[in-house]
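To: structure desk
From: M.T.
Subject: fold request, one chain
Message: Could you run this one when you get a chance? Sequence is below, nothing fancy, just the single chain.
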Amino acid sequence: MPPGVLRYAAFTADPATGNPAGIVLDATGMADSERQAIAAAVGYSETAFAEPLGDGEFALRYFSPAREVPFCGHATLATAVALAALHGAGRITFRTPVGEVVVTTTDGEGGVLARIDAPTGHSRPAAPEQLERLLAALRWSRDDLDESLPPHVANAGNDHFVLAAGTRERLAALAYDFDTLLRLMQDEDWITIQLVWMQAPDRYHSRNPFPVGGVVEDPATGAAAAAFGYYLHALGKVPASRTITIIQGEDMGRRSVIEVDVDEGPRVAVRGTAVRIDPR
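Reply: Done. Structure tokens follow.
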């Protein structure tokens, strides 16, 4: 592990589960090439680089092993929890490439809880040709899909293709063509593919292929979870304020729990915990 990098697991209270993130709490003056090299050496789906600006504000950028990412929810949550461990819980404002993101941390029985007010987002139906290319890359067919949740491209800082599986078994049997999906996502500028299965109207299971970041799959994706909140609102699936629970990472052995609050407006927030991974 490069010196000066903290490791936190996000959307879990168990460091052996959740989505691990690297964190550099003071990257002031650090060149982009150095940040990219550190992210590649860390090897997590994202490493966050913070720059203190004063008065509880920080510039925050995110690098995957392969590229910079405009916004990352789990690394934002992990950074906020790491800062709370140093300075106490409270409100933090992050200046990110997609704009201002406010995170509120509070002390709870299970550790520090963080609530991310997601960037303003939207969701739109996917084009038929986009769906056909994605199905081919995933090695899925239209018969595998849940017709009640149509394919969309949803955004909460980044574009994510939302695709709903008709069964939990279809979601579990994920064996996609990495290179084909990578080319499609590069062509369309999608950050992840948000594959979901609806267990109940307020409970979903998710998997997130992330080949553009040089990662086969992400165990917890806060930005995609926020985008999914905008997706459900666009479909009229959230007639009033509702909390949606997303279970992600189970099929990878890194179970994560993401709470998504969706209010009329719409306004979306993502909540969860994070825990320090012991230095190695």
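Reply (cont.): The mean pLDDT is 96. Let me know if you need anything else for the meeting.
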